[in-house]
Design brief:
4-stranded parallel sheet, alpha/beta, 553 residues, 15 strands
Amino acid sequence: MSAAVSALQKARAAYTPKLPKALRNGAAAKAITGEPTAAAGDVEKIKALFTENFGSPMVTFEAAAAAAAVSEFNAGVILSGGQAPGGHNVIAGLYDGLKSLNKNNKLYGFLKGPDGLVKNEYIELTDEIIDAYRNTGGFDMIGSGRTKLEKVEQFEAGKKHCEALNIKALVIVGGDDSNTNACLLAEYYKKTNAGIRVVGCPKTIDGDLKNEYIEASFGFDTACRVYSELIGNIGRDANSAKKYWHFIKLMGRSASHIALECALQTQPNATIISEEVAEKKTTLAEIVDYLASIVADRAANGMNFGVALIPEGLVEFIPEVKALIAELNDLLAKEEAAFGAITEADEKIAFLLNKLSADKAAVYASLPRTIQLQLCLDRDPHGNVQVSLIETEKMLAEMVKTKLASWKAEGKYNGKFSTQTHFFGYEGRCAAPSNFDADYCYSLGYTAAALLGANVTGYMSSVRNTMLSADEWIAGGIPITMMMNMERRHGEDKPVIKKALVELDGAPFKFFASKREEWAKTTSYVYPGPIQYFGPSEVCDLCTKTLTLEQSK
């Protein structure tokens, strides 16, 4: 950690995260097991793949009358995937929980993600290291990585390195893919009698790793508060200058939870929800017409300004654009040599227009030139379009501008339209965690230690009732197999944790849908301001609007 420490860091270091009542006497809590569980889908296929761990019961912890003696064991922790605020508190909670089980327990941090386990790169985590990172943002204590743990040779390498350090348990902190890998690892180690237990913790700012028992993925609260502060600032600026429309793209590759939460917090004039676009099979032209209509209606009332929120993964949900991308991927793979020989950008575009099927060519031709180039020039290592690099906010701003110009020529619109575009993503991933995330993450880590103390494997740490005070939080674990189904990945059926997309019949979306017409017409911006760490509970200890609406009866 840097020697330079801010005033906020000093103050946050002194913050003591809250814990569920069941864990306040230590992680050697009483484990209560429930009924056998099934799977989220494809039950028989999941059962056949996970013969060792399928059907494991849910676990809930109750405070033990007296701390039970737990034999000494060492554990390892891995941060996997993209950063999310609160990761350091998961590790701190895990460390403190392990020490409460047995003061001689050791925790090793594998460096740079799952690669550290495979390549035997690690550090022993000590009081000094842990204390320097409590309540801080980022994953810089041990680093993270995106290596997938899914091959037997990786499992065996990890086993060898764990045995050398006398590690009997691994905690993998990650999103749906990372916890799917944790489930595979747990199954393999149990099947081969490796003597290594595996527990996961739910991490992702995207908010798409949740269900009845995982109320929120950690980091979502903090990231949305960071973005909402920025959106609120922009809303205030737009209402002050009264001359710009701001198109803001928000991180969230598959799900629109961030866009929805930020809309609920800030009340912008327009928000596109990808899941609704997919459900209604809304075309790109219809999205452009919708946004242009809001701009035109506000202009008719003397308001040539506004704020629009766009989810990062939108283009993959627009039916004709999704079909275009699929055909482009196939075409560019087939014509790789011929396409690669073309040097001029306009010639590349012409080549594709000539080779695409008529309907896909029409969609491609309708896109702004910059987007046409991004679709054909930016490829990932597998030769596919890098959807996350497509500047959807600029595409929509430009297409709305073109639509408004045509309406002006027809006498349907007489306003002024100037745009500013933004992408908020990395700004929120390593922020100092909100009080909610600091408490929630510490509790998830401590609960993971309790699960290890209870000698279970293949579970995900779960903390529920998070809308209520920590006294009423329920700590426990759910079998990862319970969240899994089969999906087609790279031409094969693979077991994966089912992604939680925005539910169009859920309370958060229904509330948003009931308000968006009003927000479109009026200037009703809310200015959340920066995250508050100190002060009255009603300011500092809020949970997300999404969780509030989901849990309200």
